[in-house]
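Table S2 (text version). Query chain:
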Amino acid sequence: MWKQYLIETSRGRFEYFVRGEGEPLAITHLYMGFDERGHLFANPFTEQYKVYLINVRGAGNSADIEVDEQLSFTEIVKDLEAIREALKLKEWAFAGHSTGGMLALQYAIDSPHSLTKIVAGCTAASKEYGSHPNSIYCAENKHFNRIIEIMDLLNNPDTVREERQKLSYEWALMSYHSEEKLKVAITRPNSGRTIGKNLDYFRKVEVKSFDIREQLKSIHIPTYVFAGRHDAQCPIEFGIEIADLIPNAILTIFEQSNHNPFIEEEEEFKEFVQLTL
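Corresponding structure-token output:
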């Protein structure tokens, strides 16, 4: 289990969980709330790093959302910087998956001197991923209408827990290359409850103008990018694009994975984590 902490910062109180030993590495996600069970993406890093799994504003016991703009990438980076400073860490690494990967890229653009490296996976550097027909978030994709229904239901406070679990499983299944791997995943201790307001802000506001591709060319800290060959959320083309734009970025492709290579190819993902040291 992960150990819970609360910390007061210049931008409010934040909740985080710690596990592992070694170089400090922060992990978070734009619209997930974590608890002592940790998270499947974060777990492999704890074998090599001291991992800080952070609840962003509006998630868990972290600070409340005062204005919606606090959920933007740039404002979350400022929150992360406040947490790092309160922890008295001169610098740390940052790893992010999916929208967490987008945040990793923004963090490297905004505060490169605070980072030893970034890891960004199954992600994109612009809103264009949502227009790719292989993405379930594209209107041309066969799953699009159902995904919108699922998001709206998860954002509805009247949706009961049992229904939320079914909806989350259905959404997750679209992002696994093998249902057997998903069944393995749900047997593991894991947290990451969808925070409806945060998700709503991302899909209705933040992603509408998201495009940091040109800025990626200015990133010069060590960068490790990973992508799933069969990714149905952020198609592989967008991971390749990120690696091409960031000078000296290292790209790893997981050939038997959709959106979750840390479960779909566990041993290979552990080797990838070793690569980041």
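Notes on Table S2: Residues 73-86 form the longest helix (14 residues). The radius of gyration is 17 Å.
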